[in-house]
Amino acid sequence: MFSGIVQQKSSVVDLRRQEGLINLTIDLGSLAENLKRGASVSVSGVCLTVTEMVGSHITFDVMGETLAKTTIGTLKIGDEVNIERSVQIGDELGGHVVSGHVSGMVKIINLEQPVNNHIVTFECAKEWIDFILPKGFIALDGCSLTIVEVGLNWFTVHLIPETLRLTTFGQKQEGDFVNLELDPMTQAVVETTKRYLAQRG
Description:
The protein is an alpha+beta fold.
């Protein structure tokens, strides 16, 4: 489990591509301390399992389903990713409960930068919009964010300077894709309500 509070940006230092599989190596720096093989790490919102460790260089195996649904398959050596280690008992949960099980990708279609603000609009598959509610939670590239506005196939978030500094969102441009994880509590409430209303006719 993760909190959606990104701890740092880290660089991809190696990529080994095989059929249906990527061995992805990232330099976690000090975040590699006390990490163990088999541990879970959120890499731009994707829960990956540690398979190899050489100092602070941590390797993950990424298979077909993850490559198809996330941005991991587009990474190149030198690219930066958002990193969060899994929540430990006693940690402060500053964001919301995030599993790292990505629903799919969304595209940045507009960036606005009024004074002291950074507003990002994402194009979204229509089947997800029912679960994306104003003032609700969403995880984008592993960042726990609050939804501001919602349309038929789009939604917006507002990013504070600290988020832009600490995460890869400071580098994102129109046309870029990010990983989206819907809030499971919102999904459960919406789906339960839909089933109840359908049964009532």
